[in-house]
Design brief:
Two copies of one chain form a homodimer.
Chain A: H1 4-20, E1 25-28, H2 31-38, E2 43-49, E3 55-60, H3 62-68, E4 74-76, H4 80-86, E5 93-96, H5 103-112, E6 117-120, H6 122-130, H7 134-157, H8 164-177, E7 196-199, E8 236-245, E9 248-257, H9 263-282, H10 289-302, E10 319-323, E11 330-335, E12 347-350, E13 353-356, E14 360-363, E15 366-369, E16 376-377, E17 386-387
Parallel strand pairs in A: 1-5, 3-4, 5-6, 9-17
Antiparallel strand pairs in A: 1-2, 2-3, 7-8, 8-9, 10-11, 10-12, 12-15, 13-14, 15-16
Helix pairs in contact in A: 1-6, 7-8, 9-10
């Protein structure tokens, strides 16, 4: 169970932001936000007033929510008549997460609170959640250790003649046994991830995923990740997986090769390491997110691989790293348009990758904490290509 | 790839409904709806006019969408200036799925279409999708066969001394190798499922999942499914898994026991079979959904297990079966409030279960097609408890 101190320190950081924006409080209805501020991922709505104790209103399960959450006021979800009376009458301006609230749910609350104003706090909420507490950093370190330990086992089970799908299944089996929770949570609309990717030349494919490598997947309904193709000798096998432990995600990628690697792919991989190492050194409070992306792009261009950086030709992703925590796609993003400075305690997955059609995808990914000394690596096994 | 005939027959069924409601067309933005009507699950928006050919506007990946979809008009997502011009000027009343569209996305489209009216078609869309085409029924049969084959292997890998988590990992590994796509899609807000549950006495737990059995899970962040507890002798081991193949879900549950079973649990299991068999016989076009639930409840009450039917005391689910297809929680639901008749071609998972605190959860689940002769079982292995 989270401590009352931990939860209230998160609530206080939100309250400061609400106060700064002139809001009287905020309603959270999305399960992951509710978990962050309450310590329980039951189906509930959380009222955070600009000052004072939150109120958790639970649809299901009330008894589990009471077991999980250190909050002092946990009650059944009220009737529609009672709802407005639970919020203070003076609370007229109320924050609401427009990014993850369906229109039907928004309309439900807007009707219950007809004389109040609901105001979008999606960005503010993502900013608050982007800075991790020491407790959260510990959880993410533990997540990185567990995920790394599965990557370290790959040479034991990666065999010639396997299908990409078999490699995926063997990896996921060991990840699950190590305590992986089985669901990767993504906030962005219409994005989803089945844990990760274990792909060979099919890695260099077009797909919906907002990332550098997607894989073709098993069908047009699930066009992502492994195929039924046999893994070939002398091709890069890219394994990119998210580990989820106690709710916290870490993200890493390693390359494995049975045999030898095309020198062009080796050069691209070495360039990815250069980019990662550069961004890691700069991963300090105050660094401007988009500048790190532009510099990464410059290194890729100078190295001669600009046209295959971060995606397939014509559909390249415009980032080199992303925030990560309870969701795999948290703020900030090292991407064009993110003119904000990094803050200590943010956690960033850096993932420079190159997609070379017909040859395959190579690159590296590790999860780092932003510190005054640069990025602290939390997925701590060697980066080099593993030749089998 | 879906055929143009298959996709256009789905589109036509939607067009008939739009016409009946006096709408001029509908915009679909949710990936699973877009897949259903277009054959591609790329990140796209689909315009279905009340008459004529749909237009698929693709954010990412355009090249993959063109490979996947038989639709004739597939184009890049237009600029904000161009968007309104793509829809016919006479299209003033436009259907939109309020159940799965975030407020931010709704506002984006409402602004682009400021002189038109967006109208909620969530219910209509779920009703259209609830009736499966012969192609879809074939896909669901194949999904049921693959899922059943993994259930049939359980006696090979379920061993005394395993943790619930190990059983989960071994089951998921085999399911994945058989072609399971790794993501169970749920439409209901704040619901999620990590593939399924493999639980022993911890099955009888309180949780957020809108179902009879939830499991305690590995943490408060993921309070669902297996725990790290060792599976005990002489307790019911409930395995409830969803298989996803070519996008299509099937859902089944079986009970395994190492040793012998408490006679009270055996009686509850036998009663679950009676309820399933009753509902299966009645699963014919014209049967009223909620009446099947009420009759199931009556059988549970008469059998002396009403207070543990479909959930933990005080938090019992009010249904006995649910529609299933591209999502695990489709329409119709055999639940209070569903006064609609069943239709041929609907697919229903019937899952009577009993949760007896301190003793465990027992029950059965199979996926059936609604036919004039009653439910046709698509998850075709024996229902009986497997004793090891």
């Amino acid at each position: 169970m989270l401590t009352h101190t931990e939860v209230m320190s998160r609530v206080s950081r939100m309250q400061e932001q609400l106060q700064a924006k002139g809001l009287d409080g905020a309603l959270f209805i999305f399960a992951i936000d509710v978990y962050y501020f309450s310590g329980t991922r039951q189906n509930s709505t959380l009222w955070i007033p600009v000052e004072g104790e939150p109120i958790l209103m639970v649809r299901k399960s009330l008894s589990r929510a009471k077991e999980d959450s250190p909050l002092k006021d946990i009650r059944p979800f009220p009737s529609s008549k009672e709802f407005a009376g639970i919020l203070p009458p003076a609370a007229l301006k109320i924050g609401f997460t427009y990014d993850v609230a369906p229109v039907q749910h928004f309309n439900f609350y807007a009707k219950l609170l007809a004389d109040r104003e609901l105001i979008d706090i999606s960005l503010l909420n993502r900013e608050v959640r982007s800075v991790k507490s020491p407790y959260e950093v510990e959880q993410i370190k533990a997540s990185g250790d567990a995920l790394s330990s599965v990557f370290a086992q790959v040479p034991d089970f990666l065999k010639e003649g396997m299908r990409e799908l078999d490699l995926t299944a063997e990896f996921e089996c060991r990840l699950r046994k190590s305590g992986n929770e089985g669901i990767v949570r993504m906030r962005a609309y219409n994005q989803e991830l089945s844990g990760g990717l274990a792909v060979s030349t099919g890695g260099a494919s077009y797909g919906f995923l907002d990332g550098p490598v997607t894989g073709r997947g098993l069908s047009n309904a699930a066009p992502q990740g492994a195929t039924r193709d046999i893994i070939a000798r002398n091709t890069p096998i890219l394994i990119d997986y998210v580990g989820v432990f106690n709710g916290y995600n870490t993200d890493m990628t390693r390359i494995f090769v049975i045999g030898t690697l095309d020198p062009e792919l080796q050069r691209a991989f070495d360039l990815a390491l250069d980019i990662q190492n550069f961004v890691q050194r700069e991963l300090k409070p105050g660094a401007i997110c988009e500048e790190l992306f532009f510099k990464a792009l410059e290194i890729a261009d100078k190295g001669g691989f600009g046209s295959s950086f971060m995606g397939m030709p014509g559909e390249q992703a415009r980032f080199v790293g992303h925030g990560i925590g309870l969701e795999v796609d948290e703020y900030p993003v090292l991407a064009q348009g993110f003119k904000v400075p990094l803050q200590a305690g943010q956690i960033i997955a850096i993932e420079p990758k190159f997609n070379i059609p017909g040859k395959g995808a190579v690159g590296i990914e590790n999860t780092f904490a932003v510190t005054p000394a640069g990025g602290q690596k939390l997925t701590n096994i060697p980066d080099e290509i593993v030749f089998l």
